[in-house]
Write a structure and sequence with these properties.
This protein has about 350 residues and is mainly α. It has one domain. It is globular, with a radius of gyration of 25 Å. Helix 7 runs antiparallel to helix 10, helix 8 runs antiparallel to helix 12 and helix 10 packs across helix 12. It has a three-stranded antiparallel sheet with strand order 1-2-5. It has a three-stranded antiparallel sheet with strand order 6-8-7.
Length: about 350
C-alpha cells in the first residue's frame, strides 16, 4: 500500500557552521511486523492469514466418519448437507471448524439451463454464515473472505420456530441430527406421494406457534411485512432478469439482497419460508413435481432423499433452478403460513 504523507513541512534554514546532518529516512519503507511483512513476496495473503489464525481455505482431507459428522451435526440444511455428502461442496479448513467456498455453492445452485439460484445461496451464505467457531467455542470469529461456515446450529441463520427436522436446538452448535417425528409432520398432508406447497406453509406456521421464543408479527405488522417482502421478491426477480440479459447493476443487486436478508432475519416465519423456498426452487422443475389445485406438489420420495438420505434427486443438475422460483415460492409459503396463523387465531 503506498505510504500516505502528511502536509509538507516548511523548510528551515540550517546555520552555515553546523555541518552535521541527520540522515533523511522519511522516504524509507517502515519496518513490517514479523510474520506478515517478512517474506511477503514469497507468500500469499491466504498463507499469511493461515499462519496468523490457524484457519485455512484449502480443501480438508476428511475421513468418511468426519464427513458424516459435518453433514449430520453441522451442515443442517438439506441442500448443503447433501452437497457436502456427495462431494459437490468440498469442506475446507477442518472437520471441527468446517468452511466452504461461496463460489462453490453458487456454482451448484446455477447448474442447469438459465439457472441463477446460486445467487440466492450466495445471499444466505454471506448473510447468515459469516462467523465461524472461535477459541471460546462460540460462532464469533469472521470467516476468511470468499467462504462461509458450515456450523449452522447456533449461527445467525439458525432461529426460533425451526422445523426441528435437522436440529435439536437451533441455539446450540453441533446439535444437528435427523428427527423422524418432525419430518413426519412435514409430509403429514401428502396425497398420492406428494405434499403441496401450501401444506408446507401450514407446517411452518405450526412450528412458529409451538415455539414460545419465535418472533412472529401481529396481524397488522404481518400484512406490512408481506407487502414489503412481496416488493423485495419482485426486485429479486427483476435483478435476475437483468443479469440474464447482461444489464444488471452489482450495487443495486447487493442492496436488494441486503434488504431481503434483514427482513428474513427480523421475522422467524418469513425466515423459515425463505429456507423452504430454497427447497421449493430446487424441486420446482423436477419431473416428479406436479401441479395440484393450482400449486406445486413435491415428491415425498425426493424430500426424503434430501432431508434423510442426503442424496440429490436423479438428474437434478439438468433442470432449471431460478431465483424467480425461490422468490415466488417464499412469498407463497409466507402467505399460506399467515393464513394458517389467522385460522388458528394465533394473532
Amino acid at each position: 500500500m503506498p505510504r500516505i504523507s502528511g502536509p509538507a513541512t516548511p523548510a528551515v534554514a540550517t546555520p552555515r557552521h553546523d555541518t552535521a546532518r541527520t540522515p533523511d529516512t522519511s522516504s524509507q519503507p517502515a519496518s513490517k511486523p514479523a510474520g506478515w511483512g517478512a517474506g511477503a513476496s514469497s507468500t500469499s495473503a491466504a498463507e499469511r492469514r493461515e499462519k496468523a489464525t490457524g484457519v485455512s481455505t484449502n480443501v480438508a482431507q476428511l475421513s468418511d466418519v468426519q464427513k458424516e459428522a459435518v453433514v449430520q451435526k453441522k451442515a443442517t440444511c438439506p441442500f448443503i448437507g447433501t452437497a457436502v455428502q456427495s462431494g459437490g461442496l468440498p469442506v475446507r479448513n477442518s472437520a471441527d471448524k468446517p468452511l466452504a467456498s461461496i463460489d462453490d455453492v453458487a456454482r451448484l445452485g446455477n447448474t442447469g439451463p438459465n439457472s441463477d439460484l446460486g445467487e440466492v445461496l450466495r445471499l444466505f451464505a454471506k448473510g447468515n454464515h459469516a462467523q465461524m467457531m472461535g477459541m471460546g467455542g462460540k460462532l464469533d470469529m469472521p470467516v476468511p473472505p470468499g467462504t462461509f461456515s458450515l456450523d449452522f446450529p447456533g449461527s445467525q441463520g439458525s432461529h426460533a420456530g425451526d422445523s426441528g427436522i435437522l436440529q435439536s436446538d437451533p441455539r446450540a452448535p453441533n446439535s444437528g441430527r435427523f428427527s423422524d417425528e418432525a419430518f413426519a409432520r412435514l409430509i403429514a398432508g401428502a396425497k398420492d406421494g406428494r405434499v403441496k406447497r401450501s401444506d408446507i406453509g401450514k407446517f411452518i406456521a405450526h412450528n412458529v406457534m409451538n415455539d414460545p421464543r419465535a418472533n412472529a408479527p401481529g396481524l397488522k405488522t404481518a400484512g406490512l411485512l408481506i407487502r414489503d417482502f412481496a416488493k423485495l421478491t419482485g426486485e429479486v426477480v427483476e435483478q435476475g432478469a437483468r443479469k440474464a440479459t447482461g444489464n444488471s447493476n452489482p450495487v443495486e443487486s447487493r442492496q436488494v439482497y441486503e434488504k431481503l436478508t434483514r427482513l428474513l432475519g427480523e421475522d422467524n416465519l418469513i425466515g423459515s419460508a425463505g429456507e423452504f423456498g430454497l427447497m421449493a426452487a430446487l424441486l420446482a422443475n423436477s419431473p416428479n413435481t406436479r401441479q395440484v389445485g393450482g400449486e406445486p406438489a413435491y415428491s415425498v420420495a425426493e424430500l426424503t432423499m434430501m432431508f434423510k438420505e442426503k442424496k440429490f434427486p436423479p438428474g437434478w443438475e439438468s433442470w432449471t433452478k431460478s431465483s424467480h422460483d425461490w422468490a415466488s415460492s417464499t412469498l407463497a409459503l409466507t402467505v399460506a403460513a399467515e393464513k394458517e396463523l389467522i385460522k388458528e387465531k394465533y394473532f
